[in-house]
C-alpha cells in the first residue's frame, strides 16, 4: 500500500515538472513585473516629471482661443423648388406636348445647399479676398485684451508695408495661396445642423473674440447674398428661356402655362430683392465671447503626465527583459 502511495506522489511530481501550474507562473510573472517596476521607480518618476513639466510649458505656450457662434433658422422659402421646378410637376406634361422640357419637380434642399456652398473652396476663397482677412487668418500673433489691438508675426507679414515676407519653398509663395488659406479657415469654422429642429449653428474660433464675432456675421450676410444672387440669376435665365418658347408656340394653352411659369420667376426675383435674410434667419446673433473656448490646459497637463508615466514603465520593462535575455 505504501509503495502505491509513493508511486502516486512520484507521478504527481513528474506531472508538475512537465506541466507547471499556470496560476503559479502568472503569480511569478506579476511579482517579477512589480519588482522590476519598483527597482526602476526613480527612472519612472524622473521621466514622468519631465513629461509633466513639458506638458505644462506646452499648455502655457498655447494662446487662448475664443469662439463666437450664431444660431440660424432656415428661412421660409416660398420658392422652395427654385427655377423651373416650381410648376414643372403640375404643367410638365402639357408643356412636353409643345416640345418643352421643364425638368423634374424634385429640387435640392436650399438650406443644405447653402451649407455646402458655405463649406466650399470657391465661397471661402471669395470671402477671404473680399474682406481681406488673410493676415488675420495666416499671420496672426497676439490679441491685446486691454485695448483690443492685434499684432502679427513679423517673420510672416510686414504690417508697415502690407507685404508678406515668409520664407517658403516652391511651389509656395510668400503670400499664402487660397488653398492654404482654405485649409486654415476650415480648422476654425464649424457648421452643425440639429436634425430634430433643423436649426443651424455657425461658429468661428479665433484668438480675438472680436474677429471671431465679425467673421460669423459676415459669413451669414455673405451666404444669404450668394444664394440670393444664384436664385435671381437662375430665375432670370429661366424667364428668358420661357419667353423664347412662347415665341415659338401658337397653342393658347401652352402659352398660358408658360406665362404662369414666368410669373413664378418674377415672384422669385421680387422675393429675393426684398428679403435680406434670404436663406438663414438669425435667431441668436454672434456675440463677443468673454470666456475662452480653449485650450484645455489642465487636460493637456494630465494627458502629458499619463503619457510620460506609461512610456517610462514600458522603458523600464523593456530594458529589464533585454538585459535578461542577454
UniProtKB/TrEMBL annotation:
**Membrane-spanning regions, if any?**
42-60, 298-322
Q: Does the keyword Cell membrane apply?
A: yes
Supply the alphabetized keyword list: Cell membrane, Membrane, Transmembrane, Transmembrane helix
Q: Where is the Polysaccharide chain length determinant N-terminal domain?
A: 26-130
Membrane topology per record: Multi-pass membrane protein
Q: Name one GO molecular function term.
A: protein tyrosine kinase activity
Residue span(s) of domain Tyrosine-protein kinase G-rich: 281-320
Q: Which GO terms describe its cellular component?
A: plasma membrane
**Protein's UniProt keywords contain Translocase:** no
Location comes to: Cell membrane
Signal peptide limits: none
Q: Which InterPro entries match?
A: Bact_polysacc_biosynth/exp, GNVR, LPS_length_determ_N
UniProt name for this protein: Wzz/FepE/Etk N-terminal domain-containing protein
Amino acid at each position: 500500500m505504501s509503495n502505491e502511495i509513493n508511486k502516486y506522489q512520484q507521478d504527481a511530481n513528474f506531472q508538475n515538472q512537465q506541466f507547471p501550474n499556470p496560476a503559479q507562473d502568472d503569480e511569478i510573472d506579476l511579482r517579477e513585473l512589480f519588482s522590476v517596476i519598483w527597482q526602476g521607480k526613480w527612472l519612472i518618476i524622473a521621466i514622468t516629471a519631465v513629461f509633466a513639466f513639458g506638458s505644462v510649458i506646452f499648455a502655457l505656450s498655447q494662446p487662448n482661443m475664443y469662439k463666437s457662434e450664431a444660431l440660424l433658422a432656415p428661412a421660409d422659402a416660398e420658392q422652395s423648388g427654385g427655377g423651373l421646378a416650381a410648376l414643372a410637376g403640375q404643367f410638365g406634361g402639357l408643356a412636353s406636348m409643345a416640345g418643352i422640357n421643364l425638368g423634374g419637380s424634385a429640387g435640392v434642399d436650399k438650406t443644405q445647399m447653402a451649407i455646402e456652398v458655405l463649406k466650399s473652396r470657391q465661397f471661402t476663397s471669395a470671402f477671404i479676398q473680399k474682406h481681406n482677412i488673410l493676415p488675420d487668418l495666416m499671420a496672426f500673433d497676439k490679441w491685446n485684451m486691454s485695448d483690443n489691438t492685434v499684432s502679427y508675426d513679423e517673420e510672416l507679414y510686414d504690417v508697415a508695408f502690407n507685404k508678406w515676407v515668409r520664407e517658403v519653398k516652391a511651389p509656395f509663395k510668400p503670400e499664402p495661396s487660397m488653398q492654404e488659406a482654405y485649409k486654415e479657415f476650415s480648422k476654425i469654422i464649424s457648421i452643425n445642423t440639429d436634425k430634430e429642429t433643423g436649426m443651424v449653428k455657425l461658429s468661428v474660433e479665433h484668438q480675438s473674440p472680436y474677429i471671431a464675432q465679425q467673421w460669423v456675421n459676415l459669413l451669414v450676410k455673405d451666404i444669404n447674398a450668394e444664394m440670393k444672387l444664384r436664385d435671381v440669376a437662375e430665375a432670370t435665365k429661366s424667364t428668358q428661356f420661357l419667353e423664347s418658347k412662347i415665341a415659338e408656340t401658337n397653342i393658347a394653352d401652352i402659352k398660358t402655362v408658360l406665362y404662369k411659369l414666368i410669373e413664378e420667376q418674377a415672384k422669385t426675383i421680387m422675393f429675393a430683392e426684398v428679403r435680406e435674410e434670404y436663406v438663414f434667419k438669425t435667431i441668436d446673433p454672434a456675440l463677443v465671447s468673454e470666456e475662452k473656448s480653449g485650450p484645455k490646459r489642465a487636460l493637456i497637463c494630465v494627458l502629458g503626465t499619463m503619457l510620460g508615466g506609461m512610456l517610462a514603465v514600458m522603458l523600464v520593462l523593456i530594458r529589464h527583459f533585454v538585459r535578461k535575455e542577454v
